[in-house]
């Protein structure tokens, strides 16, 4: 059976056209090299060398085999280097999730640019997913990591790295009577139509908001559920109801929507990089290390 060493041995002999010099180059004894070449020719079923008193030369088969040897050895070396680089996390693919809030924060382009500079041969495949869908994808293995919002203090079986924080405010039309009231409270929403996060994709926040409303004695009038901030904002702007949006959200100008804090509502959430501890993608460790360093560094 042909092995890699047979190609290396033949390459040395074919390039030197001298068994003595080839044996020195390979750090082998001349008789051992001679036997290896003889075994190779027996395996090939044809002579590769012309052996004459004045020296050796390549047969036509040997000359063709020499070209293939060079190609095979180059491929083997490239495969070895590629496997080692993948194992070291310098080559490969990372599937990264991010939600709407993470996508608009200034940290995100900073993280991604820094990673691409440091590891240009790791392909970053980005997936826009709401936080709950990212959790499902992380558990299913289709995501390596995700940038998502998680209620502060919530237990998790993932590894997490906190990179920011946020909270919730009331979104309402600019001409709504409550915009003129000081210190809006949850009880002020008793007779208001509300637009809430879709419980199918954001069950945790939906449940927390419903609990806070019930605790305040408010029977929520849910007019609509929606999946993303821009949709919610447009529904508020259209007069469909009031909503809860993150404090970091900035309605575009011109817009008929304003944000107002609620005196008795605080639901802090953390923006985190989240991943499974059992994930074996070597490039993931580089991403986590880089994001940690970038998150701890002061803004430029």
TrEMBL record:
Pfam families membership: HTH_1, LysR_substrate
Top-rank taxon: Bacteria
Taxonomic lineage of the native organism: Bacteria, Pseudomonadati, Pseudomonadota, Alphaproteobacteria, Rhodobacterales
Protein name: LysR family transcriptional regulator
Family classification: Belongs to the LysR transcriptional regulatory family.
Species of origin: Cereibacter johrii
Listed InterPro entries: LysR_HTH_N (IPR000847), LysR_subst-bd (IPR005119), WH-like_DNA-bd_sf (IPR036388), WH_DNA-bd_sf (IPR036390)
Residue intervals of the HTH lysR-type domain: 2-59
Keyword vocabulary terms for this entry: DNA-binding, Transcription, Transcription regulation
């Amino acid at each position: 059976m042909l092995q890699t060493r047979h190609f290396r041995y033949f390459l040395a002999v074919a390039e030197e056209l001298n068994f003595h010099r080839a044996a020195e180059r390979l750090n082998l004894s001349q008789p051992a090299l001679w036997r290896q070449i003889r075994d190779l020719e027996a395996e090939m079923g044809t002579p590769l060398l012309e052996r004459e008193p004045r020296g050796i030369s390549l047969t036509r088969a040997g000359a063709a085999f020499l070209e293939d040897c060079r190609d095979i050895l180059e491929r083997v070396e490239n495969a070895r280097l590629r496997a080692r680089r993948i194992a070291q996390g310098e080559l490969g693919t990372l599937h990264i999730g991010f939600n709407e809030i993470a996508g608009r924060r200034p940290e995100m382009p900073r993280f991604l640019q820094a990673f691409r500079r440091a590891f240009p041969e790791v392909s970053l495949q980005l997936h826009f997913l709401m936080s709950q869908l990212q959790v499902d994808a992380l558990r299913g293995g289709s995501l390596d990591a995700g940038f998502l919002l998680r209620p502060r203090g919530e237990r998790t079986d993932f590894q997490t790295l906190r990179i920011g924080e946020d909270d919730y405010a009331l979104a309402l039309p600019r001409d709504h009577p409550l915009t003129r009231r000081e210190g809006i409270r949850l009880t002020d929403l008793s007779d208001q139509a509300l637009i809430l996060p879709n419980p199918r994709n954001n069950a945790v926040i939906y449940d927390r908001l419903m609990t806070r409303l019930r605790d305040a004695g408010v029977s929520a009038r849910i007019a609509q559920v929606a999946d993303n901030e821009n949709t919610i904002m447009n529904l508020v702007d259209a007069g469909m109801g009031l909503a809860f949006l993150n404090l970091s959200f900035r309605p575009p100008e011109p817009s008929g929507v304003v944000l107002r804090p609620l005196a008795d509502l605080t639901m802090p959430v953390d923006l985190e990089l989240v991943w499974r501890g059992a994930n074996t993608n070597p490039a993931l460790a580089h991403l986590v290390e880089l994001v940690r360093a970038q998150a701890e560094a002061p803004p430029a």
